[in-house]
Specification:
Blueprint lengths: L1 H10 L8 H24 L7 H9 L6 H35 L11 H15 L5 H24 L7 H26 L2 H8 L8 H20 L1 H7 L3 H6 L4 H23 L5 H13 L3 H26 L7 H19 L1 H4 L1
Length: 349
């Protein structure tokens, strides 16, 4: 308890010029944006419905109406999957960027999503017809394998692991796992199924999947919020964190567990989508400052909203066909990645 009070006192020196009232207003704006995007997500689709219809389906459900059945069975679970996956990816990215002190860290670029995707491909081939709980567990194991190999590859140097080596190792592991996944899909004839899944989609989300991932999602989110203060201090540097009496190894272990849970849930729901965890934390850092007690909850709200908006765009761009989420985020994320990389180019020298 003494250490916590000590840490509380010292974290007040962390630059935060925005203030709590500004943060509250910013968070409220994000919640409003999320609610508006949810309303639009329920209304827009292959068959457009009015907001009034969506409202009555939510609060005065009539099983005799086809529109109400569509909203309950398809659009609400799809929207819920969007929100959960967006929150997971954004918070996982924020945590990774914080404890690795790497502005390019993202579960899609650090081998985490690729590991989960490869594990899912192996499951489709060698363990077909598994229960959803087994599929989710496989996703977690794959995410852990990808993350572990990335850290191992980044550490295999006399100078130890650096943020730059971590990025290069993550990209290498992602490419390796992608190649192995393609080899498996070609040899076992699951190319179409795997390509559909890896391109990212929530079109087939069900209530059963939502109920299954909720406990893991809440667990990963709670762990992230629990260590938010410690990540803020750790982001200042390990020497400073040691000076504050912080247990660095324990914080990193909890952070890694949180990332694995969140990334595993996201991949199980929508496939290995990248760049959400890169884009959102940077934008949040610009608006709320460098304190992760603010960055993490803000990333959750705005990450969920961004995923819902992207899914709506995917439905409307090429109607009646749908554009995969992976394509939309690649179009947004690649220029953003290049922009951040160019700003960090001095660190790579």
């Amino acid at each position: 308890m003494k250490k916590n009070r000590k840490l509380d006192d010292r974290t007040t020196v962390i630059p935060n010029l925005r203030g709590k009232s500004y943060f509250g207003l910013f968070l409220l704006l994000g919640i409003l944006l999320l609610l508006l995007s949810v309303a639009a997500s329920i209304s827009f689709g292959s068959a457009s419905m009015s907001l009034k219809m969506a409202w009555t389906a939510l609060f005065n459900f009539d099983p005799e109406l086809t529109e109400h059945q569509i909203i309950h069975a398809l659009r609400i679970p799809r929207t819920a999957a969007d929100i959960i996956a967006g929150m997971c990816l954004a918070v996982a990215g924020a945590v990774m960027q914080g404890y690795t002190r790497n502005p390019l860290a993202d579960s899609g670029l650090m081998g985490v999503n690729a590991g989960a995707a490869l594990a899912m491909a192996v499951t489709l081939v060698f363990l077909p017809g598994q229960l959803q709980t087994t599929t989710l567990l496989v996703s977690f194991i794959g995410a852990g394998l990808g993350s572990g190999l990335t850290y191992l590859a980044a550490s295999m140097n006399r100078s130890g692991m650096t943020p730059q080596r971590l990025v290069l190792a993550g990209i290498s592991i992602t490419m390796l796992f992608g190649a192995v996944g393609s080899f498996i899909s070609l040899n076992y004839g699951i190319g179409r199924a795997l390509a559909y899944w890896t391109s990212g989609s929530v079109a087939g989300a069900t209530w059963m999947e939502i109920k299954l991932v909720i406990p893991w999602f809440l667990g990963g989110l709670a762990l992230s919020l629990f260590i938010a203060r410690s990540i803020t201090v750790l982001n200042l540097g390990e020497e400073i964190a040691k000076g504050f009496g912080q247990r660095i190894v324990l914080v990193k272990m909890i952070a890694t567990l949180a990332v694995l849970l969140l990334a595993g849930v996201a991949v199980a729901l929508v496939g290995p989508i990248g760049f959400v965890g890169l884009i959102i934390p940077h934008i949040m850092r610009f608006f709320v400052g460098v304190d992760y007690r603010y960055i993490i909850p803000a990333s959750a709200i705005y990450g969920g909203a961004l995923m819902v908006v992207a899914d709506i765009a995917g439905r409307l761009i090429n109607r009646p066909a749908e554009t995969a989420l992976g394509i939309i985020f690649a179009m947004i994320g690649v220029p953003f990645f290049l922009l951040i990389a160019s700003k960090e180019r001095r660190a790579f020298k």
